[in-house]
Amino acid sequence: MKKIKYFVLAFAATFFAAGFTACGDDDEKIVEKIVTKTDTVTIVKTDSFIDQTNWARYQAIVTADVKAQKKHDKAILLVAFGSTWEQAFNAFDATIDAYKVTFPKYDVFLSYSSAICINRAAAGENGVTRHYYAPPFWLNAFAADGVKYNEIVVQSLQVIPGEEYTRVINYIKDFANNANGDLDDEYLANVSIKLGVPLLQDAEADVTTVASILDASYGDKAAQGVVAFIGHGNPDSYDTYKANVRYTQLEEALQKINKNYFVGTVDMMDNFKTDVYERMQAAGIKSGKVFLHPLMAIDGDHGHNDMGGDDDDNWDGTKFTPNEEGEVEDTSWKMYFHHLGYTCNDETVIHKGLLELDNIRGVWMSHTQDAIDGEPLDYYHSKNPEE
User: Fold this and answer.
1) Separation between Cα atoms, residue 293 and residue 299, nearest integer Å
2) Distance (Å, rounded) from C-alpha 42 to C-alpha 8?
């Protein structure tokens, strides 16, 4: 088969779902139809750009998109970890729309920081195909000839100031320092770059605010039984820049309001579902309803599978077998509490990501406004919040 490369004839949307046609050994070109939220765009792949790399093709696509959408001299780039679920795609779409309303003088774009999510979303893992691109493509496009935004605000859609947030900061640093040496140094010396912090950046103000909003949304559920919020957590049992502690602090803030609130994670040592169960037992909560809710920006794979899925392979009919870290693997939160005698089923699983709660999304937006109102990016303090 001849090598084929992308030639972008038209490109009008930030998010798109692609359907590829088959090609034979003698094909001279292949037409790819891109279905966007509002239109259908045609991309022709030809063999005329044989030496073009994937990186260059992706950069060309993103830059063309930014140029097509540019209406202002300032841009907001929302950075999410990512997802492959249609519910998450819809939440991201709604978030972009809300940002455009709240920040009408800014062009708004969204990127994924997870290569796995980018690739799997493009492959249509859960039945709907979307193409997202990593932050460097967008930042480079913002600095391209014909674009060159005067102000760039990067808003982290992470929940805690942890490992993924650190990656966002490093993307910005590489961009600002012209890591690849292919941007205009004079432009980079003068552009204003600002950073909006994660949802729970501040140990007092943000944690207290989010606890109050969650109680306003789910106080009726807490009056009926346990409401357990499930966050992701930093991996490998470490606490990057005081990140995992935010879950503990949020549980403490929520329990000042109602003792039926708990906060656990899928990936934080000593805060797995088994640890939440032990805290419930210690509090004397040995039966009743258990409501489950993702403490993540979107309700994606962790929400649909780890939290609310039907997997209970670890249950042998009488007991669970925890791993060396104390977690019960291969069993969802729903099935775990169900087998332990609580009322936990599809009716008590709340499939909503935090971006789907308008007031919680408003906290992220307030961080964006704070970034706009503040000084250009202070890398050190943005990466090292106070305890």
Assistant:
1) 9
2) 8
As given in the structure block, the two tokens for residue 112 are 């994924």
Residue 39 to residue 89: CA distance in whole angstroms: 17
- Pairing relationship of beta strands 5-7 and 151-156 according to DSSP bridges: unpaired
Q: What is the per-residue pLDDT across 328-381, written as a single tens digit (0 to 9) for each?
A: 999 999 999 999 999 999 999 999 999 999 999 999 999 999 999 987 765 545
Q: Where are the alpha helices (DSSP H) in the chain?
A: 54-69, 86-102, 115-122, 135-142, 163-176, 185-190, 205-222, 245-255, 273-282, 301, 333-339, 358-373, 379-383
Cα separation, 122 vs 129, in Å, equals 5
Phi, then psi, of 256 in degrees rounded to 5 = -70, -25
Tokens describing residue 21: 């046609």
Report which of 91, 18, 142, 31 is spatially closest to residue 352, judged by C-alpha positions.
Answer: 91
Q: Which of 301, 223, 308 is nearest to 273 (CA)?
A: 308
Do 308 and 324 touch, CB atoms closer than 8 A? no
Q: What is the pLDDT of residue 242?
A: 73
Q: Which range has the worst mean pLDDT, 44-53, 76-85, 148-157, 348-357?
A: 44-53
